Each structure stands twice: as structure tokens, then as C-alpha cells.
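Predict structure. Chain length: 160.
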Amino acid sequence: MGYRRGAHTVFEIHLHVVWATKYRKSVLRGDVGLRVRELIRQLCRAEDTDILKGHIAKDHVHLLLSIPPQVTISRLVGRLKGRTSFAVLNEFAHLRKTFWGRHVWARGYFCCSSGNVTDEVIKQYIENQDHEEDGDFRVEGEEDAAAPAASPKRPTKPST
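Prediction complete.
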């Protein structure tokens, strides 16, 4: 996999996203599952999002995605859930009876970031940088700024 590039960025943002059908109904089988997969692929292409791995289970969707920095997670998942729901309800009459409220997906979703390194590796990398400590947030060269320098003396008025 490797880093992706934008006009002014180099990035690797991987997300594991999961959402379920309403009431965990087992409706994502056969043609419905295939259509949901096709729609997700189209929507991800339109958002410049790569699907690294995906799985449509009978009652939920798992995706491992690579997103560019300008894509917000909540907007992406909202579009995926909203547009797939709208399309499959229009195309499959039996779903309109099952999901009479016009909602195929349950509220919410699961999302977590992933990458090639763990949080511990990043913490170690940051810890080993050459800068002074102030809790968990340090500034390089802080020791120079924090050292008690000779305070400049204010000019005094000439005594008369």
C-alpha cells in the first residue's frame, strides 16, 4: 500500500468502518448485497476513497478505507448509508415492507483509525525528539526560552 499524494500533501489515512441494518435484519443477501457493494464502490470512487478490504455480511457492512485528508468521516459514512438506503429501497420492493420507515440502516456506526504503526511507536518517536519536556506536549528549544535569562533593566530616569 504506500502513501497517497495530493497537490500539497502526502498521506496514509486508513479507517475501519462498520454499520448495521436496522434491527439487525438479515437482508443483505443475494442481489441486495451485490447492489449495496456496487453502490459503495461507486460512492467511494466519487469521494477519492480507496476500499482496501470490504465485507457485506447479512446484517452489517465492514470496510477498510483509505481516505484523503479533505474527506470527513461523518460525511462519508452519511453519504454511504443514505444513498445506499435510498437506492435499495427504490429498487427492491420487499425491503419497503421490511423497513416501512424508509431506513435500512441502524443509527450510528463504528469507526477507528488504523495504520502501519501503533500509538506506542508514535509516542516513542515523539518522546525521542530533541526537545524539553513539559508533560505530554513539548517544544523544541524550550530549554533556551525557559532558562532564566538576565532580565533587561528598565532605563531609569536621571535623578535631578
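Summary: Residues 49 and 135 are 37 Å apart (CA to CA).
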